[in-house]
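Narrative summary of target 7.
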Amino acid sequence: MPLPAGAQPAAVPERLSRDLPLPVAAAVAATLTYLLVHRSLVDDAYITMTYARNLASHLHWGLVVGETANSATSPLNVLLLGAVTVVVRDPVVAVGVVFVVTIVLTARWLAALAQQLSSSGATPWIGTALLLPSPLLLSTVGLESYLAVALIVGLLRYGAAGRPVAFGVVAGLAVLTRPDLGVVVVVAALGFPGVRRRLFRATGTAVAVAAPWHLWSWFVLGSALPDTLLVKLGQGTWAGYGFATGPLLYLHAYPAAAALSFLPVLLGGIAFVGVLGALLTGRRGGLQRTAAVAALAAVAHYAAYGVLGTPPYHWYYVPLIAGMTVCAALVVGDVLAGARGTAAVAAVPVVLALAMVAVDLVHGTPWTRAAIGSNWATPAEYERIGRELQPLVGTSAVESPGEIGTMAYYCGCAIVDVFSDRGRMVDMIEEREARSGPVGRALLHLNYLHLDRSDEPRPVAFRLEFRSEPPFDAFRSWPVTHWAEGTGRMLLLPPR
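Modeled conformation, tokenized:
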């Protein structure tokens, strides 16, 4: 069959040879990485996986079948995992599939961003190599963190290209991934002229993507936003460490893993200073603008959480790490593309990535516990408790000790707290409304306008409690390893 006039038969093979190595390498690396970490998923990841399993098996939104809840912070992550679970029949496998896909998507969007900014072809390799093996990010697998990273890169990719509709689609998905990513969306929308000039179109698209879920959640689940926003805002500090100072806590508890996780933030900060210098001296190219937007969005998200005073959950630092890493990758790529690059410039991200991989491997093959975490037991310990708890409690409800995900996943029984029992959530909502000022009270009332407040807390026949010191008298107890307090026991006790 003759080729159309002007066709170039070598174009497709040439494009494949240019574009294919990165996503293939990313897919292979992500698959191997998931095999490394899949036994170490943190407790909150199992909350998400239980939601996904219940959605796939029963079309039910909640942790306990028959008990509707709205404690899944990331509706999009649950929906994706639920859809994949329908096919693969195992939420743990579904987490791996979504993880690999998001890494490949991140790499492809970084490549497209570098190409449209005329940056070095090394830029997406640098960005992917710094994001994939990050000990902190790997300690969040199963949560929405890598999905958030991909969508942050997508916002930069379409914002820099001046494509408001595509930007709006990604923005809507970002808000469905985590509501707080709205901070990143706003900074990116205002930072890119091509989006800012057509803000109505971008905003309308984002609303069209995100609003259906939030409206359904508002009317059917009783709140437009997940309950976890209210739960986490009221938890205070950990041993005096709030969100703003949380990195210091992790540097103390996990020196090597935390230092390597936050070094890209420092690298991005140095790159941002260079970008500001270029902008102030009149060099206002697309790459400088994009790098600046990435850094400013990261800092804005960090500042917003610092003002809110949330606890230092390690996955809350993902937008900071993602934005600053992309800023660093863009600037290093620009240096290399401008023929000003030296071996030292290229060596910095390479050495950092290799150091991350080394720490990841030293931590275990495979991991049995996240490299950075704050759980009261290892995943294997919680799995054992969950499996042995089910025949002990039967259909009776059990009050959770404060961590619920892994035990609820493996027990399949009614472990209840504010994450799973809406009656307990009603009590918390009303207590917060009573303590809030007029504006806060009005916002809470609006969010929970359609909530059935007649729900009563589910009665419990047992309760679980962690203790690091005796007495350990209980119906049953299990040895556990607390991340900060060391060895202790999880006790099955009578109700309070």
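Strands lie at 398-399, 415-416, 462-467, 476-482, 486-493.
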